[in-house]
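Need Phytanoyl-CoA dioxygenase's 3D structure for a figure. Predict it.
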Amino acid sequence: MLDYLRNQLRSLKLTYTVYNFLHQRKLRHNEQLYRRYGLRKRVYQSVSSDDFKALGAGEPPRFDVHDSRQVAASYPGFEQFSLAIQEGIRSWSERGYMVLRGFFTADEVATINSEIERLIGQGEANWRYSHVKIMFAIHQSEAIRRIVAKPELHAVLSFLLGKPVTQPFQSINFIQGSQQRAHSDTIHMTTYPLGYMVAAWIALENIDASNGPVFYYPGSHRLPYVLNNDYPHDNTHFTIGESAYKAYENAIDAVVQQNQLQPEEFHAQAGDVLLWHANLLHGGTPIQDAHRTRQSMVLHYFAEDVICYHEITQRPALRAKS
Ligand SMILES: O=C(O)CCC(=O)C(=O)O
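Structure prediction for Phytanoyl-CoA dioxygenase:
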């Protein structure tokens, strides 16, 4: 009965509006952005891609417009990166992902893992999605926050987006593989203009084909964004459709089939990092060995001075200071 009521409340746009109204402090950054981009809405109201149609596409990230292989070296700051990172940046426009091998040390990885273990042991881990994801550990652990706040990571992300990127919007930790179906993060963390999000996924142990690695479709970020109007979401003016996310996943499967996309898997050593573009299609492969863990952490970053929201539920993103 309680679950039923909770689901009913979650399907009402009004529930989110009231929640946002009560948390306006975390939406204040949008006041100036709405003015700047010409969006005529209150910051606590629902917002989705429909609201931006009349405003045009806005200015996309620079490497979505110009091939990073041709132009990256001409932007200030490129020389600060190692040769391996420079090569990753060069291939960004074409592939939509890049790898930072050995970016976190064994000590840093061990500290993150023991902090997660501590949160779980103390019953403080913020589990979601049937005990698959631990949300926002960065808000609970000073040690994790400090480790992931590497200036070099922020420098790479800022360089890729051509706008400052200073802190993660959220963190998610996994103990086992997510086995999540293919999706683009833009359906969960949408921006106006589109494309100003990057994910940084950190291997916290060695990962191979048997413990549910992340998979992705190279180059898929260049396909059109799939947003609410591109699948049968059954939303109404007042409610969010109950099976909207499933319908979205089915639409992405169709995109994969139509374009005959071929997946790659991210096999990694502990400390390796995979960065992916806001629209790169990706997910988690099935776990072949149920006895194995797949400890990992993903951080999602928005560029500063863009509008961020959740397309499916049409909620503006609340930004808490970490
Ligand atoms: O870690 C995984 O298996 C998938 C993570 C993911 O899809 C995401 O962070 O968007």
